[in-house]
Design a protein that fits this description.
With 248 residues, the chain is mostly helical. The chain has one domain (2-241): ABC transporter involved in vitamin B12 uptake, BtuC (Orthogonal Bundle), CATH 1.10.3470.10. The chain has ten helices and no strands. The longest helix has 28 residues, at 2-29.
Amino acid sequence: MIDILLVPIALVIVLVMMHSWFGEKILEKGIIFTDLAIAQFAALGSSISIGYFHEEYFYPLTLLFALLSAFLIAVASQRILKLEAFIGLLYVLGASGIMMVLSHSAEGMEHFKSLLASDILFTPLDEVIKSTVIYALIALVLYKIYPKTKGFVKELLFFSLLAVTVTSSVALAGVLVVFVLLIAPAMVAISLDFKNRLFSSFVFGWFFSIGAIVISYYYDLPTGYTIVFLGALLSTAIVLFKSKKVRA
């Protein structure tokens, strides 16, 4: 049992560490659905690969569409408009595009379910290693180059790096898993007002994602959806309990 769980646990440890930083920044910017829109566009690229190219060009198409959405959001962030509404439109554009593309596939709904939340219990070790290398390079750019940029360049670099991150994450875990790992840990750490928010995000993210993996294994549940459910359940409960009432 332990041997089977080691790889997915290693995967979520890495995913939580990478996504918690982006999640905190997204919450600070107040554009909560940015990651969901980018993830949906990445999934649209994956769908095109599956629906029209028999899964050839999977990674390039996934990355291309993720970067396209990142570029559009970066441009929109420099304009006077309702940014959250614009991002919402990008999300539904990507979601509807996926359904249109996969409607031509005999196994379209199965692909769609996988794109939303994959069964990471059987993720190959080499995929985890490859993604870890990609995330390490992204972290290096965030540490060395990102703080030195400003204006549109800074926004474009942020969203582009998020797009590259999401590209790997969607392929490994799915759109909904990416969303919950980005938002839930950061939101709980901010709500509980921990001094070290990033590390607190790590701990909470590891707790519910590893717990979900173990639960899904013992009760034969879909791992990705179990992570999403447990993460969303615990984070909403904690935030509601901690938050104060609006004064009348």
